[in-house]
Design a protein that fits this description.
Elements: E1 3-7, E2 13-18, E3 29-35, E4 39-44, E5 49-54, E6 62-63, E7 73-79, E8 82-89, E9 94-102, E10 111-117, E11 123-129, E12 132-137, H1 140-149, E13 159-164
Antiparallel strand pairs: 1-2, 3-4, 4-5, 5-6, 7-8, 8-9, 9-10, 11-12, 12-13
């Protein structure tokens, strides 16, 4: 879909913003996190764009200027002012890494502060536990293979990795 949805406290879904820029091949708008200053940062997995979407005026979204496309960006996590992006695979890219972006201009642009290879071949998301970044590898590639061979079956095993604190100046 070429939309970002919201769900209210009663569980009612509606479109926050819809735009042709969100369209693409395969997985498109995927990882997002809410910045404390009132906007979303949203990764577009298929072509590596990152969008800043103001919650009070979502149609006024902008693309964050990046030094390179962040293709295969899946889960994202705001941590200590940085944006941690979990990259895995697309049809043309096999990144399998943790990328840390940093912005000094309120996410009009961002630079790559760190790159760290991920030991799993399909990491998908991250969370904080204390000051440690924890990643989950959903093994969606195995899930899709299981469903193809056994349509009623679901992948039941997932891997969790503590990747440590990325960035010497990271705060919780």
């Amino acid at each position: 879909a070429h939309a970002i949805y919201k769900i209210d406290a009663a569980g009612v879904k509606s479109v926050l913003v819809q735009n042709e820029q969100f369209k693409g091949e395969g997985f498109t708008m995927n990882g997002l996190d809410v910045h404390p200053d009132g906007y979303l940062l949203v990764a577009k997995k298929s072509d590596g764009k990152l969008f800043k979407v103001p919650l009070d005026a979502p149609k006024k979204f902008t693309a964050v200027k990046l030094p390179e496309p962040i293709t295969a960006g899946d889960g994202i996590l705001l941590a200590g002012g940085d944006l941690v992006i979990i990259r895995n695979r697309t049809a043309t890219v096999a990144a399998n890494e943790i990328l840390v972006l940093r912005s000094v201009d309120g996410w009009s642009s961002a630079s790559i502060a760190e790159r760290k290879p991920h030991e799993d071949n399909y990491p998908t998301t991250a969370t904080l536990r204390g000051n440690q970044i924890i990643t989950v590898a959903s093994r969606i590639n195995a899930l899709l293979a299981t469903l193809k061979d056994n349509p009623g079956g679901l992948q039941q095993e997932f891997q969790i990795h503590t990747i440590g604190t990325i960035g010497a100046d990271r705060k919780e």
